[in-house]
Amino acid sequence: MQNPRKEERAAVAMATTSALGKRMRKTGSTKGDLNCFCSLSLQPEQHGRSICFRTAHSPTRSIDFYCIPVDDDFDDDADGCRTPELYGPPTKRIFPFHVSTKITDSASFAAVGKSMFCVGGHKVNGKGEESSAIYRFDTTGDNAGCWYRNSFDLCCPRVYPTTIAMDGELFVIGSQGDDAPLAEVFDPSSKCSLVLEQTPKSLDECTFFETAALRDRNQILVSCTYVNDAYLLDVKTRVWVKIDPPADFATANREAAAVLKTTLCWYNDRLHKLVAYDLNLKKWFKTSIKNLKKVGRQLKDVYQTDFSLFPLDENHLCFLWADHVTRVLLHCTKVRVSLSDGKFCAAVASSRSYIVRDGSRFLDGLLLDLTSIPQEGSTSRDVGGKN
To answer: This protein's superkingdom (predicted)?
Structure first.
């Protein structure tokens, strides 16, 4: 009797090999052509909602920025229950809309309004020095189409900080040096960064955090993984309030949570499961993503952080991840999530696969939503960006 799981893996492997084979037959190589970047890349401003992501390109020591349209090519079936043998149209080869040698992979990535930001990281002088630089990419205006350095830096250098976009500002947390402040807030409109005062002592002494942007509440959850302390920061008043009783966020993945209503979601790369904590129920849940194995290959003993998870709407997450076997093959998977009657479920709604430059390593991604940007003269401060 045939092993259905083995057949499923073989089908995915064959699809991947076929996609790469077509590329090799066309070009004679699987390597990208630098001269084709501008003509074949997608620009963020061309679409109302885009998924933008970064890869580190080892051969050129550059950071590549890519764009994928959401609404034109990322819908699940009308009945919402498609379960084909393989998801999506044929794999597409895509090219960066921008390549930078000034930004490092240790900078964080976030978006506010029509602009994207890379915050902190290391300097590119090869000495391993930490950076306080803020780089900005505008999709409109005089500086549109390129990354440029902001005229004001962070208050202190930060490496691999957590950066959350909320209320038109960037809240930058963690990975600071000794005696430096835990968190600061950068306002793109005033181009000024201010230290967040009176941070809880237990958080000041912590290295690794779990975070979540609770947009409906105007709060940011910050939890210290090791001391089991969690706080809510009010983004309006800048007041920290301790969560009592505290929830143990050790099962999360040191990534910013994707928030659906009152449910915080993480993808645990060791369990290969979606992990969730509901703020109202004060209860943890975990589940496998149904049919994810039909999208790409995940190996049990491979622990990778080559993925990003963020919300698309109230019921769907975007799971952007690198194939465990073919690293230049990225899967952009729409996951339908539900929590009812104490049962947590997740299943693939649709998926698209893309081939990036050889020698690339996926870093992170975000949702750039230009449809929610207020018109000129509006006082709204709606934010598009990483959760």
So the answer is: Eukaryota
